[in-house]
Amino acid sequence: MAFADIRIKSLETARECVRLGARRRTIALITGLPPSFILRSVFDDRHRAPRGRPPYTEDLVFRSPLNVQAEIGMFATKYRRLTGEGLATSQALITAFKHYLSVVPAPSVSFDEAFFLVSNLDGIWAAAARTLELGHCRRCGCQHVLPRGAVPAHGCPFCKSRRSVAQDMAPERAATVLSPGASPAEDELAGISEALELRILAMRRERSLERLGAHRRVVAALTSGPAPPHRTVALSSQVGTRPIGRPLNLVRWGVAVKTLQRAQYSLVAVAYSRLLGADFEPEEALRAAFLHVSSTLQTEPPLSFDRCFEVVGLFDTRWCAGQPELHLLACSKCQARFLASRRDRAPPHCPFCALIRDPDKYSGSRRPST
User: Fold this and answer.
1) How many angstroms separate the CA atoms of 313 and 324, rounded?
2) What is 136-157 written as a DSSP string?
3) How confident is the model at residue 241 (pLDDT cuts 50, 70, 90)?
4) Are 193 and 36 in contact (CB under 8 A)?
5) How far, in Å, CA of 229 to CA of 346, rounded?
6) HSE-up of residue 79 (Cα within 13 Å, Cβ side)
7) Stated pTM of the model
């Protein structure tokens, strides 16, 4: 996995941990993000990090009331089932805890405690070695948490007689219970920083453009990010000072640009315009138009995203200065819309009519793969 993907995944995991009430140390151990970065970027003034040390204690499992031990066993069983199906430990922890919250009316285990339990089950994160494991009750067959290497005894929290929660709950334990009726201040702690959401969204957009082969300066232009000042370059659409690759020949557009490429660029421009009319964001409209055309009319070499950005920039001027250099015309014969250069010395002619008249001549296209 690329470093950018790992970074995005870490931030998304941190976001889920915050929603579940995790403390900064817990998030740092799960994601590998520095605690200072978490305090600065994951939390903010409106959504402060929970105070105090995480409630990590070895007494969580064996000195808790029977109902709490049963909840721990249910959570641990779900977690082990998810890891057995191939989920990563962090994702299995989050998913198992969400499941636990959804089935227990008044949960008694916090996310930090669930994290500590998983650490000791697998010997990861906050634990140096595996100290706990799941065992089957010899009476009812249910799985429950045991010290590593211990022999399961007759009876477990699920089949033993249970006392009422009020009798079992020790005062010091009741003070740390995570319940749905939390105070407004505690609810605010579980909120997500708007800056974090925007950061994750921006990183995902940048990564999706990079996967399409976009140059980093094209990515910067589409995401409104500043390009490095000492490497400010652009396409012939004037987003900078010099082009990425050879500029398109606008003076001899109908002759210098291949017919099949002009057809592709025209399809991209038409799809882009329609998506803008449907209230798509410009960056999303360009990306969707490129994916549609590149998968429908495939060529060898394949369609370049940077070239499509250049063409759309010359047509729309959203990411460049000056007047539009390309415009869409309607063919009177085939009724198709095609791009033409305003500076072309020759009269504009439709590339789709040429493809219809002599399809064998333009054999650079290939059928979409099945």
Assistant:
1) 8
2) E-TTT--EEEEETTPPPPS--T
3) very low
4) no
5) 38
6) 28
7) 0.66
